[in-house]
């Protein structure tokens, strides 16, 4: 019942840019199962109403479909795509940004014993679960506001808080709750993730980033790998390659220059790691992304047949 109305609302209110009149709420409508593309997750709650999607993070693969949702509690580099979508049955998805301040406010309002304590190692940075009827109901009521614009300013924040509470008190609650805890392990790892993202072109020592995050080197390395499915150096490489692909897609045909710009001193290493990540060398991928045929390139690696 809820999924039927959710699909109808998403279909009616989908825009080409994915935005809505409700701050922090996005709608996806995809009519083809395109090849995987690289992106950052953000901290987000993403619910599938029709179709299916696959995300890869490091060596982990996450599949979720209609009636399931994904929570990303850390902004992570992923490769993903809708695996079920067509013009006749477009894939439909709902997304809502998870704000640490909003999580913290709800945690302060919760009565003692309402939520189990967060213990043990930090939860995975990405997790998939089935959506409960209560959660689907709240999402539907939020989207109904798009048809009553005068209600959005007053009611949307209330329903968004309800959705957040359903997440905090649900199966993936530990991951969402840690977003609002300033001294949680997830908060320390998130601080390191932001630093690496902001300084991805620079070499660094893991010991220095661990110190900046306020953790011992061994605890930092263990927790970073648990949350991101990668070592800090592998994470930096993912960021570099994602940024390089974005630059190549936008304008640059100077593959060697792009590699240097994202932090690679060796053109051959850049080309080798790019091809390992995306399946083709950078010059060939750039031409495909821009819909052109490669003419000249700084890419020292021959194209795959």
TrEMBL record:
Name of the protein described by the UniProt record: AraC-type DNA-binding protein
Biased composition (Low complexity): 291-305
Domain of life according to the entry: Bacteria
Keywords assigned: DNA-binding, Transcription, Transcription regulation
Coiled coil: none
Record carries keyword Transcription regulation: yes
Family annotation (InterPro entries): Homeodomain-like_sf, HTH_AraC, HTH_AraC-typ_CS, Tscrpt_reg_HTH_AraC_N
Annotated stretches, region: Disordered: 273-305
Entry keyword Transcription: yes
Molecular function per GO: DNA-binding transcription factor activity; sequence-specific DNA binding
């Amino acid at each position: 019942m809820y999924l039927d109305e959710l699909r109808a609302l998403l279909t009616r209110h989908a825009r080409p840019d994915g935005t809505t009149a409700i701050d922090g709420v996005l709608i996806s409508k995809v009519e083809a199962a395109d090849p995987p593309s690289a992106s950052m997750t953000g901290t987000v709650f993403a619910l599938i109403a029709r179709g299916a999607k696959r995300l890869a993070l490091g060596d982990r693969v996450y599949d979720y479909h209609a009636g399931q949702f994904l929570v990303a509690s850390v902004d992570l580099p992923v490769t993903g795509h809708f695996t079920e979508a067509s013009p006749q049955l477009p894939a439909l998805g709902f997304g809502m940004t998870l704000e640490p301040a909003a999580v913290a406010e709800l945690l302060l309002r919760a009565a003692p014993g309402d939520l189990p304590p967060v213990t043990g190692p930090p939860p995975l940075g990405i997790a998939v679960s089935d959506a409960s009827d209560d959660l689907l109901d709240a999402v539907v009521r939020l989207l109904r506001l798009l048809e009553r614009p005068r209600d959005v300013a007053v009611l949307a924040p209330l329903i968004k808080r309800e959705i957040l509470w359903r997440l905090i008190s649900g199966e993936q609650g530990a991951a969402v709750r840690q977003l609002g805890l300033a001294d949680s392990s997830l908060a320390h790892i998130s601080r390191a993730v932001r630093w690496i993202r902001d300084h991805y072109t620079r070499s660094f020592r893991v010991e220095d980033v661990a110190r900046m995050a306020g953790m011992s080197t061994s605890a930092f390395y263990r927790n970073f790998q648990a949350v991101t499915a990668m070592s800090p150096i592998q994470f930096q490489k993912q960021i570099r390659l994602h940024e390089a692909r974005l630059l190549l897609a936008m304008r640059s045909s100077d593959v060697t220059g792009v590699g240097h710009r994202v932090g690679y001193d060796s053109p051959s290493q850049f080309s080798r790691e790019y091809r390992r990540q995306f399946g083709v060398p950078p010059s060939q991928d750039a031409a495909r992304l821009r819909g052109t045929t490669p003419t000249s390139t700084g890419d020292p690696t021959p194209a795959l047949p």
